[in-house]
Design a protein that fits this description.
This protein is of the alpha+beta class. The chain contains twelve helices and four strands, in the order H-H-H-E-H-H-H-H-H-E-E-H-H-H-E-H. The chain starts with a helix and ends with a helix.
Length: 342
């Protein structure tokens, strides 16, 4: 009983001091092992670029907007949340990763055997871990690439910046080209309609009808004068003119109104066609680069000192716990043997 009381009265500090030599040896061994293990871990470096997405990339909207100022069409305007999210989704595109794999021969760099099943999944998993796309607190987009080679990390980050321009411009050019082709077809149709209306108007004019309102007013005045003067020949001639105006006048009036609508639509199509052509042939950066990537001169992983400290402390705590358990078991065995002897 005294032994048990004596054991329970031991303080933790006293026990540690008593086992200090054993614990010191264990800690030194843990430090050496953790240091060796940390040295086996490949160092990683990271390169970061920070960009803003623009409000719009349409050449036509930006350069030809002369009517009213619109912040959205300002070439210097930064993107809102919607455009930023679209840009982030574009940066996550599979095409960018495939281009990086091909250009930097990442299968060899990451030591991935392409003959093994599932190598594409493996390399994509590595790339997803190596590339980090996130929003900053100020609404910008941070692009970070981590790699064992600091120069390659920087080059891959630069390549992502180039690829996002290439992909977005190509996509928008394809849409602009489709719009251009559709507008060309529509303009061809409207040109034919305008030509048809012009031919119909010429027929009306060939029948002596040029302006229904003016001619009707003049014929009525002359008809009234001829009737008042009793000029039968003039009355007969003017009556025929009235009949001709009654037949061709409404047709001419309808054709002229149609011509105005067609010409207005034709002008709009030509304007849109020029806009689509400008968007199709022009290209511009699709982002504002705030911070370009640089070659890192210091690794960010692993933190060897942190690994050694955490590992050593963990082993120390575990060792104290194990030694306490051993001491407890030995004490109980001693008490049992003493009781049996009595």
């Amino acid at each position: 009983m005294e032994n048990n009381d004596k054991y329970n009265s031991f303080s933790l500090m006293s026990f540690i001091w008593k086992k200090r030599k054993v614990l010191l040896i264990i800690c030194i061994a843990a430090m050496v092992v953790s240091l060796v293990c940390s040295l086996l871990i490949k160092s990683k470096y990271k390169s970061t670029a920070v960009i803003y997405a623009p409000r719009t990339n349409s050449f036509a909207k930006i350069l030809l907007n002369e009517e009213n100022y619109n912040e959205r069409l300002d070439i210097k305007a930064y993107a809102s949340e919607e455009e930023t999210e679209q840009m982030m989704q574009l940066l996550e595109a599979r095409e960018i990763k495939d281009s990086l794999i091909q250009k930097f021969n990442l299968t060899k760099h990451l030591d991935i055997d392409t003959n093994l099943r599932g190598w594409r999944t493996k390399i994509m998993k590595n790339l997803n871990n190596a590339i980090e796309i996130k929003r900053t607190n100020y609404g910008a987009i941070s692009i970070t690439v981590k790699d064992t080679d600091p120069k390659m990390a920087c080059q891959m980050t630069e390549e992502i910046l180039k690829l996002v321009d290439t992909i977005k411009n190509r996509t928008e050019h394809a849409r602009a080209k489709a719009a251009y082709v559709a507008l060309c077809q529509q303009l061809d149709s409207i040109d034919k309609e305008v030509a048809r209306v012009d031919d119909s108007i010429k027929i009306c004019m060939q029948n002596g009808v040029f302006n229904l309102e003016v001619q009707s007013e003049r014929v009525m005045q002359q008809y009234a004068i001829a009737v008042s003067q009793g000029n039968a020949a003039a009355v007969s001639r003017l009556a025929k003119e009235q009949e001709k105006l009654a037949v061709w006048g409404p047709r001419l009036d309808a054709l002229q109104n149609m011509q105005k609508d067609f010409l207005k639509y034709q002008s709009l199509c030509k304007q849109k066609l020029l806009d689509a052509r400008l968007d199709m042939e022009g290209s511009m950066p699709v982002k504002f680069v705030v911070e370009r990537p640089i070659v890192a001169d210091k690794k960010f992983y692993p933190k060897r000192s942190l690994i050694v400290i955490v590992s050593t402390l963990s082993v120390l705590i575990l060792s104290v716990f194990v030694l306490l358990m051993i001491d407890k078991i030995e004490d109980r065995s001693f008490q049992k043997d003493t009781g049996s002897a009595e």
